[in-house]
Structure formats: structure tokens, C-alpha cells
Design a protein that fits this description.
The protein is built from ten helices and twelve strands. It is an alpha/beta fold. A seven-stranded parallel sheet has the order 8-7-6-9-10-11-12. The protein has a five-stranded parallel sheet with strand order 2-1-3-4-5, covered by helices on one side. Helix 1 crosses helix 10 and helix 4 crosses helix 6. The structure holds NADP nicotinamide-adenine-dinucleotide phosphate (NAP) and glyoxylic acid. NADP nicotinamide-adenine-dinucleotide phosphate (NAP) binds next to helix 6 and strand 7.
């Protein structure tokens, strides 16, 4: 089996060494323009040139959970796409989101400001029941996040395309379930895949439905959020703040208003990183299953968009 590796922003050598160890029978090399046809590929944001030069690939194994960048390309219909399935990302996402929710709920920013002024102020505790958290997307990451939030006794709601059941979480589904889901929440966490249906889903209309003093945590994709609408609702006071890990343009341009907005906390697309060892082990196992003709977990449905 010939495996070609084509991953943007990724140092290839340690990945190639890992795949050599995990799949000693395979030939693994970094893709270069003009390289011979491979059987399968390990990819992250490959170019259209790569796809056009490798039309015989049977499958592409994405070293991330989101496949939006892949599905924007012109792909041969027979080429299978397999996404990363947790591989150590879910626990990172759970800690990132719980940290953001707790930081807001326990008013740590205000305490930090008091400390900077050497002021000893004990604030009246906020009421947990008044901070219901909603998780858009109850997939591999969203479900883990929803379960983690329940550990802190927040009321938790979840929204998915098809009906789901998660213990302790009030689950809503489909377009018809969205308004009720939104109005049930004060804190909104986005863990949807970016698809034609979910692009711009965090907009003036949807965010206005959150309870007053709402808080937005976007850890999925920047194109889910209409940035001007967020700024307007922060300005009007309907929203109290936001934690954003992903942006329409990455890296975030130096003059972007999010950098210095007092109600916005940003991080550089780091909420759940691809972990090399875990990912190599998972993808190697998937490649072996694929070779044997067995079902592979994490197969993407291009028609669905995720
Ligand atoms: P997943 O397992 O595919 O789960 C997606 C969830 O979204 C499912 O519950 C799905 O509903 C729901 N969904 C999809 N389209 C919907 C729609 N139109 N309406 C309602 N619900 C919809 O994905 P995942 O592994 O949890 O990852 C989610 C996303 O996180 C990725 O696509 C990626 O963009 C992002 N991500 C970001 C980072 C980061 O560092 N910031 C890291 C990893 C991933 P069903 O359950 O009905 O299918
Ligand atoms: C990261 O953003 C991923 O999709 O894995």
C-alpha cells in the first residue's frame, strides 16, 4: 500500500516516522507535485492540485475532525473521506469550554480586575440555575462537552440534526427545535460542523433569542459566526461576552476589533489540537480496517456535509 501525506501547516517528518512504525508494510511519503499515484492519503487542507494529481486515491484520512476545507474541493465521487474521531480532542474541548463557562459564571475577570487594584471584594454568588448552557452539535465533541458541563450541575441543553439522548441533557433536534433550544439557554457553545446549513448560524436573529446577558463560546468554525451581529449584540448589552477560538480569517488580522474588545476573549484556534501519537494510532487502525474491507468509524457523508 502506498500512502501519501499532504498536510498544510504540519511538519511531515515525525508523522512519516510514526506511520512507518505503525504500518511497516506500507510505503509512506510526503506528497510533492508530480509524485506517483498513491492508494490512500493522510491530509489536512490539501490543495485542489493535490486532488487533481491523485485522482485514483481510494480514501483520504483527515487529521482533524472538521472536513469543511476538504469538501470545498472538487473530489472524485468514489474517493472516501474519513475524519478523526476524538483521538484526544474531546477531553481538550471539554476542558476549554468548561473553563470558559466557569470563568464567566464565577466572574474571574472581575476578581482579576479587583486584585489589580488591591481590592478585597466578595461578590454575591450568581445562581447556577440562571446559567443554562446550550451546546449546538451533540456529536463526538459536543456530547463530551455537554456531559462535562453536567458535572458542574449547570442545566444543559443540546441541539442536533437527528434526535439524540444524553443523560442529564435536555435534547432538541432539527430546525423546528432550534427556537426553543435557543430561548432555553443563556450560554451558547457552538460545536457544529461547518456546512451550507450551519454557515452564519450564529447571527443577530439566533443570538437575540438567547436569554438576556447571554454568552457565546465558538469553538467550531469562524464562518458560523456573523461577526458584526455579535459586536452589535455586545454593544446593546443583550450579550454579556464571548469566548472565540475560531475566526472567519485565520490568523486573525492584526487590526481586527476582536483583539481588544473588552467583552471578548480570544484564543488562536487551539481549543482541541490534533495530537500526533493518538492520531497516527487511530488513522493506522482505520487504514488497516479499510484495507480489509471492514467498516471504518468516522466515514464522512459528503451529501450531509460532515
Ligand atoms: P460530529 O461528531 O460530526 O458532530 C456534529 C454534530 O452536529 C452532530 O450532533 C450533528 O447532528 C450536528 N449537526 C450537524 N449539522 C447539523 C444541522 N444542520 N442542524 C443541527 N445539528 C447539526 O463532529 P465533532 O467531531 O463533534 O466536531 C464538531 C466540529 O468541531 C468539527 O466539524 C470542527 O469544525 C470543530 N472542531 C474545532 C476544533 C478547534 O480546535 N476549534 C477542533 C476540532 C473540531 P447529528 O448528531 O444528528 O448527526
Ligand atoms: C480542528 O479544527 C479540527 O477540525 O480538527
Amino acid at each position: 500500500m502506498n500512502i501519501t501525506f499532504c498536510c498544510a501547516h504540519t511538519q511531515a517528518d515525525p508523522w512519516l516516522a510514526g506511520f512507518h512504525m505503525a504500518l511497516p508494510h506500507a510505503h509512506v511519503s510526503e506528497w510533492q507535485p508530480g509524485a506517483p499515484q498513491a492508494d490512500v492519503a493522510v491530509v489536512w487542507q490539501p490543495s485542489q492540485q493535490f486532488i487533481d494529481e491523485q485522482p485514483g486515491l481510494k480514501a483520504m484520512f483527515n487529521i482533524g475532525a472538521g472536513v469543511d476545507a476538504l469538501l470545498r474541493l472538487r473530489l472524485p465521487a468514489a474517493m472516501k473521506i474519513v475524519r478523526l474521531d476524538d483521538a484526544g480532542m474531546a477531553v481538550q474541548m471539554a476542558e476549554y469550554v468548561c473553563h470558559a463557562v466557569i470563568r464567566h459564571f464565577r466572574e474571574f475577570d472581575l476578581y482579576e480586575a479587583d486584585v489589580a487594584k488591591h481590592q478585597w471584594v466578595q461578590r454575591k454568588p450568581l445562581v447556577r440555575g440562571e446559567f443554562p448552557v446550550g451546546v449546538l452539535g451533540l456529536g463526538v465533541l459536543g456530547e463530551r462537552v455537554a456531559r462535562a458541563l453536567r458535572q458542574f450541575d449547570f442545566p444543559v441543553h443540546g441541539w442536533s440534526r437527528s434526535p439524540r439522548s444524553v443523560e442529564g441533557v435536555t435534547c432538541h433536534a432539527g430546525q423546528e427545535g432550534l427556537p426553543n433550544f435557543l430561548s432555553s439557554c443563556r450560554v451558547l457553545v457552538n460545536l457544529l460542523p461547518l456546512t451550507p446549513e450551519t454557515r452564519d448560524i450564529l447571527n443577530r436573529e439566533t443570538l437575540s433569542r438567547l436569554q438576556p446577558g447571554g454568552y457565546v463560546i465558538n469553538v467550531a468554525r469562524g464562518a458560523h459566526l456573523v461577526e458584526e451581529d455579535l459586536l452589535a449584540l455586545l454593544g446593546s448589552g443583550h450579550l454579556a461576552g464571548a469566548t472565540l477560538d475560531v475566526f472567519r480569517t485565520e490568523p486573525l488580522p492584526a487590526d481586527h476589533p476582536f483583539w481588544s474588545h473588552p467583552k471578548i476573549t480570544i484564543t488562536p484556534h487551539t481549543s482541541a489540537r490534533t495530537l500526533r501519537e493518538e492520531s497516527i494510532a487511530q488513522i493506522a487502525a482505520k487504514i488497516l480496517a479499510f484495507e480489509r474491507g471492514e467498516a471504518v468509524v468516522g466515514m464522512v457523508d459528503p451529501a450531509r456535509g460532515y
